[in-house]
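Hi there, hope your week has been kind to you so far. Do you reckon you could talk me through the fold, stretch by stretch? Thanks so much in advance, here it is.
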Amino acid sequence: MEGVKASYSQVLSLLEQHADDPDENPYSSLYEAVNILKDMLHVVETLTESDGCTLLAKCVINYQIGYSLLDTDLKSDCRQYFLFCLNEVDDLYLSADWVVLLVSCLNSLGLHEFNSGVTAEAEKYLHHACDIYKKYLLQVPDIPQALDACLRSSSNPLTANDETLIKNFENCHTKSLFYLAQFHQDADHFVSNVLLIFVTLERQLRFEMDMPSFNRLEWGRNCTLLSDHLINGNRFSEARHLLAAADQIILKYHTEDTDRMKQYSADISRHWIKYCNALFSYSISAESEETVNPKLIDDGLTFISKLTFGDNLLREKRLRFPSFDDKFFEGKIMSKKIDDFPEARSVFLFGQSNINRSKDYYDLYSHASDYIDIIQDYSKLFYNLAFFEEDLHRRCQMCKRRIDMLESLLSELNPQHYLHVCRQLQFEIAQVFSDMVDFKQQLLTKNDGNRKFLKINQLISQAIVMYEQFLTSMRDKDGNLPSTYAENYCRPALITHFYLGRLYGKKLCSGKERISNTEKSLKFYSYLVDFCDKNPEVRACVLEEYELCAEMMTLLPGKIKALQSGASL
């Protein structure tokens, strides 16, 4: 066995070198390691039990061959090596020498089957891995040994103490739970997916935090992704805790000022911004409530308890990491429904501080797409804050801030490269101008002079220009609009005609100009109705606007005739 163990030391060195394999031959170290392992296997098959743990060594070598092939071009070959290990074992999982190998083998086989599309088999293997973990902890007092302990030589011994060996076993189980979470990503298993991912994250903190393999940046990113799921379910308290943990793990354990750290910090800020906007939307909604049925949570906890035990989630029935305290963030950002302007302002200011923090890394010239998203989120923060502001003058000021930032961004973008974004910005800017028109009209009094009328007409004209630019971007070289629109543009294009009809009708004017504007309104209303009549399948997406336009088509011709005859309306 000494010759086999010496060869295994070479294998371990090659596996460590794999990260540095050249791009033109990315698996060279793995393939070389597999060849050595196959030679080792031939040697072990000639040995007898008296030469030392032959069956276990044979299974470990088979596992390592399969594991080494798992991410290569020859991944389809790895299944046979994992199955060899399972077929050789009866109840050996109750042995400290075998249990880590078997759980690891089932995990790898489950991952392979999942990636191959054989999900039923994959799930079966992973559930079996969880069963072995639970049975071992309940029935066996011995500390599980390292997977490859029998192949270690005196020149390359294991230095793991009992605590490390236990953590290695726990980490194998954590992988089982993480892989199982991949089966529960659909809407029907939303709660199970969230709980499985949380348990995975919580276990990583407990068992991997102090290990070199623990990637704090990756752990934090996974926290932010899970927070997105919870935000979608209106579970803001848990989402806030996860984002706070993602923030704290870097503040607590990383001090270097690297580019990766700056990007990570900016990404956390972007998730905080989305949290703020989601909390606003939740508070503004007429039907604000958590979208997760408590019974589903109980069912999910029952499901988790069959896979693992002793975890904080199962004891306290809430998503909390005991090692993280989010009191600091509780004082900075709320998690309950926003009820008034002071609360809305505090959420806005927290979101704005994260806008600035994210812009420290993302700028228009180096990260254009990310920067665009940040500015659009910033505009949305102002939009949401305005909902809670009763002073119309201050609402207008917020609209002006939005217009300034969006127009500045639009002026910097090349429509050839960012056509979709330019259309989004044109449409949003037009809507903001339209909102300002409504606010200014509400502020009008009988004593107001022409200056305010001219200002309203100017805002109307600016809204019209932006809506026209939006439509122009869809015209062909002859200036004609398409006979049909792409699905994502159908409603926006049609309601733009509705909005243009309304805007021309709101202009404060008289005489021939009023007649001309009324005729333009009729033209835009007629376009929407005619388009829907020719394409009845799209009528449902603009049904309310369609009915209003149809009504205006019956009223406006009479109004135009009356204006032409000099009648007072």
Observations:
- The CA atoms of residues 281 and 287 lie 11 Å apart.
